[in-house]
Amino acid sequence: MAGTGTFKEIVEGDVYKFYADGQWRLSSSGNISYVYNPTVAGKQAYKITACSKDEVNQAFQSAKAAQKIWAKTPLYKRAEMLHKVAEIMRKNKGPIAECLVKEVAKPAKDSVTEVVRSADLLSYTAEEGIRILSEGKFLVSDSFPGNPRNKLCLASNAPLGVILAIPPFNYPVNLTCSKIGPALIAGNAVVVKPPTQGSVSTLHMMHCFHLAGFPKGLLSCVPIKASELGDYVTTHPLVNCISFTGGCDTGMSISKKAGMVPLQMELGGKDAMIVLEDGDIELAATNIIKGGFSFSGQRCTAVKVVLVMESVADKLVSSVNAKVAQLKVGPPENDCDIVPVVTEASANFIEGLVTDAKAKNAKLCQEWKRQGNLIWPLLIDNVTTDMRIAWEEPFGPVIPVMRIKTPEEGVKHCNSSKYGLQGCVFTSDINKAMLLSDAMESGTIQINSAPARGPDHFPFQGIRESGVGSQGVTNSINLMTKIKTTVLNLPTASYTMVGGDVSLPIEKKGPACGDCIVCMHSYG
Ligand code: G3H
């Protein structure tokens, strides 16, 4: 059970502690943040200590010091440690998943999946790190015009230092691991600023790292009141890289203030599904359900607008409607398909989008229904470009359908969005699929499947306001390291030789002779 047994150290009374310097502590600030249960209006799920400025600063100082030692820990040992965490997480998936259900209302089964997926991600990262960090590059100077072969360049990846990881509420375990894993394997230290909703899941997950025995100070998790200390954390002088997943406005604000540190940001999307006349309509409908409504649409990769050719639109809409009627709506504990959205503010925002669309004559295919944060799944047909829902990201179980006359119209809508995370195309013609994929300006285009980040090692990136940098295991490791080169300058050109030309002089025993290949540089 959460907060007990293996996890009893991370809580005192009913208040969850923060993690720094290898210890779980209550903040001296006495400040508490409240995590609400999205399922029960106004009900507190958890209380968490909120760190003071000094405690945050200390976490960064300790991270800096610990990183210097961690960077000199052999790569195979760093990998072993990540494998160990993965094992501990798998063993403790129950209590961690329990927190996900309570604080972000993730369906019970999906919560367990998130923990296991994250453990797998750490194992994969350990293996991938071994492979890519054990190799560097060797360059020689004579490939560049005007240079003989007298300079040998060795390039390898060096850790950046301290990585600030800011995960979102919707994947507080997985998207924290996707940042911590690559950072650690590459020899960095990490300070995690958890999301408020989702912080207790993150703290439980951090305890698995603690139990694995990482050096003190290398990792910390500092819940803060973002309105008070958010800027302090993101502009701290010891931060060497920020990996942030979350809202577009916050991401933009961080990127403007961050200064000269590498950024990895994923800030949401308005992922378009284009359905052509020759597309498999049943398959498209199934993917709208799976890709648009799972976790009540609270995924940056959810299908957020359907652009369907007029001639097949009725068929698609009626198929989706039939499937919507089968969706189970209710609490996450019962593994319902549609669960309450994370906060009341979020539910109000979604309702605002629906009200606007309705007022502008969109057709609600189902009755609008809301109880607290629970919103029944809704398909909105005949959406037009003057409606907010054609452009804005609901992050809820509400999907707009726009009927298009040509594929180009769909591409135009997709490319006019301020977002560009993912998109998808349903067609049975591979040539059309490829042409549309090329034309749609988004980080990833899926052919005949809904947008999705996973498998977690695939490159994942957004353009425009969907983000900067690329994720996926390899890309994250590369982003959290810097190429460092050593150039060996030889006193004269040297060309490496193999082969057995016996006519060449061979090394002579005894004093240097001036005509043998081995000693010619000293005596030439
Ligand atoms: O919410 C953003 C996540 O990166 C989406 O991940 O495609 O696995 O749901 P997912």
Please supply descriptive tags for the structure shown above:
37% helix, disordered C terminus, binds glyceraldehyde-3-phosphate, 524 residues, globular, six-stranded mixed beta sheet, 24 strands, seven-stranded mixed beta sheet, alpha/beta
Notes on the protein architecture:
- It is a single chain.
- 37% of the residues lie in helices and 19% in strands.
- With 524 residues, the chain is α/β, with parallel strands linked by helices.
- It has a 7-stranded mixed β-sheet, with helices on both faces. It has a 6-stranded mixed β-sheet with strand order 11-10-9-12-13-23, with helices on both faces. Strands 1-2-6-5 form a 4-stranded mixed β-sheet.
- A hairpin with a 2-residue loop joins β17 (370-371) and β18 (374-375).
- α3 (93-104) packs across α4 and α5 (174-185) packs across α14.
- The longest helix has 26 residues, at 108-133.
- The relative contact order is 0.13.
- Glyceraldehyde-3-phosphate binds at residues 170-171, 299-301, 452-454.
> Largest sheet at a glance?
7 strands, mixed
**Alpha carbon gap, first and last residue:** 77 Å
Cα gyration radius (Å) = 27 Å
Main β-sheet, spatial strand arrangement:
16-19-20-15-14-21-22
Average of pLDDT: 96
Count up the helices: 15
Percent helix range: 25-40%
Ligand identities: glyceraldehyde-3-phosphate
Structural class: alpha/beta
What proportion of the residues form beta strands (DSSP E)?
15-25%
Anisotropy-based shape: globular
Number of E strands: 24
Low-pLDDT residue spans: 519-524
